[in-house]
């Protein structure tokens, strides 16, 4: 069987599309890193080679997002799902309450894990509206002196995104930013802690990025299990145990790719343009049915439906035959979903729009 070299347009929500230049560099250097004589898959995490890799990745992350000096950058494992537990275990101190603003399935899961640790207040939820929107500031019932307020910045399943952060006063804001971190400029100082599984917008699966303000590390008690302790990982520069070396290496290449593209301002401009094209087509005739409220639509995950499930099945089947992959919506909500992360090419959006117009012409 001959290898497949032609690339489809990959709209998967994650693991997701990677930058082709990054894939090509990995391909060139996989057997032997330049000047090293062995693969990144083989080098010791205690070696100077890997120390340089992880330090460069952190330096590029800090430069890309202008991260203040009083924040630690951690490379962990377990994805966002482990962070659902690590966040409350580390910073939900005894006698305090954590506020969760529930805007989708993943925030709901995070709140359930936090309840295993301590007191949780659902400050707002849009579940009654099928998570089609982000709540307004006036809808929030925040706890005075809460341990933290948790949000999910972008909801991959429901296709909504926070475009204006909630006002939480002096309380630390915690964000699961797995699917939109670095999709546009970000003010890190607005947060106490941000975490993101890499496999959507940062790199391959296996690495989890955590950015935490240093003062919050004091809440990580010594009685906490070592591998669940932020302070331990910070003290050991993310090298307490063997980290996901290949995933960190690749994440670092993606960060450099983002910097070479002009940084987050330029990336954000391109993402706005890509999403704008797709939403314009969804709104053009009324044939397509976007599921998210207009002002809360995601730049990363565009969700929509058709009049019948039969038409939706036909759309997914024909789009796959036409060279598009991953357009079927999440199994819990159905419909369609086009995930257009940083690495997704703009020409792929143009091709999808053209396909949608032809599909509507034949089936409208």
Quick overview of this protein structure:
With 364 residues, this protein is α/β, with parallel strands linked by helices.
Keywords:
364 residues; Aspartate Aminotransferase, domain 1; globular; 9 helices; Aspartate Aminotransferase, domain 2; 14 strands; alpha/beta; three-stranded antiparallel beta sheet; seven-stranded mixed beta sheet
Polypeptide structure, described:
This protein is globular. It has two domains: 24-260, Type I PLP-dependent aspartate aminotransferase-like (Major domain) (Aspartate Aminotransferase, domain 2); 263-363, Aspartate Aminotransferase, domain 1. The strands form four sheets. A seven-stranded mixed β-sheet has the order 2-10-9-8-5-3-4, with helices on both faces. Helix content is 35%, strand content 16%. It is α/β, with parallel strands linked by helices and 364 residues long. The model has no long low-confidence stretch (mean pLDDT 97).
Strand proportion, as a percent range, falls in 15-25%
Please estimate the helix content.
Answer: 25-40%
Instruction: Tell me the distance between the termini.
Output: 40 Å
Question: How many helical stretches?
Answer: 9
Order of helices and strands: EHHEHEHEEEEEEEHHHEEHEEH
Largest sheet: 7 strands, mixed
CATH superfamily of the largest domain: Type I PLP-dependent aspartate aminotransferase-like (Major domain)
Radius of gyration: 21 Å
Which regions are unreliable across 5 or more consecutive residues at pLDDT < 50? Answer: none
């Amino acid at each position: 069987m001959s290898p497949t070299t032609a690339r489809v347009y990959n709209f998967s929500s994650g693991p997701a599309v990677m930058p082709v230049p990054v894939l090509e560099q990995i391909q060139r250097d996989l057997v032997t890193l330049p000047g090293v004589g062995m693969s990144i898959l083989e080098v010791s995490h205690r070696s100077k080679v890997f120390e340089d890799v992880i330090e460069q990745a952190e330096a590029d992350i800090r430069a890309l997002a202008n991260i203040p000096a009083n924040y630690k950058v951690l490379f962990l494992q377990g994805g966002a799902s482990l962070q659902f537990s690590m966040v409350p275990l580390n910073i939900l101190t005894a006698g305090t309450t954590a506020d969760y603003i529930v805007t989708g399935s993943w925030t709901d899961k995070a709140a359930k894990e936090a309840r295993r640790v301590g007191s949780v207040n659902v400050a707002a939820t849009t579940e009654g509206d099928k998570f089609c929107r982000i709540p307004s500031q006036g809808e929030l019932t925040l706890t005075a002196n809460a341990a933290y307020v948790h949000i999910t910045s972008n909801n991959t399943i429901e296709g909504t995104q926070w475009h204006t952060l909630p006002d939480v006063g002096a309380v630390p804001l915690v964000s699961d930013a797995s699917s939109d971190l670095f999709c546009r400029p970000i003010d890190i100082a607005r947060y106490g802690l941000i975490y993101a599984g890499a496999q959507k917008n940062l790199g391959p699966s296996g690495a989890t990025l955590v950015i935490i303000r240093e003062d919050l590390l004091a809440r990580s008690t010594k009685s906490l299990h070592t591998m669940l302790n932020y302070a331990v990982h910070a003290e050991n520069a993310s090298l307490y145990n063997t980290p996901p070396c290949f995933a960190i290496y690749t994440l670092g290449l993606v960060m450099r790719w983002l910097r070479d593209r002009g940084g987050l301002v330029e990336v954000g401009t391109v993402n706005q343009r890509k999403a704008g094209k797709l939403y314009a087509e969804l709104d053009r005739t009324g044939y397509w049915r976007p599921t998210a409220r207009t002002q809360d639509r995601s730049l990363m995950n565009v969700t929509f439906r058709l009049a019948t499930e039969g038409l939706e099945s036909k759309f997914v089947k024909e789009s796959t035959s036409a060279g598009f992959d991953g357009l079927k919506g999440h199994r819990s909500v159905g419909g369609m979903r086009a995930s257009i992360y940083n690495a997704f090419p703009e020409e792929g959006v143009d091709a999808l729009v053209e396909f949608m117009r032809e599909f509507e012409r034949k089936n409208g």
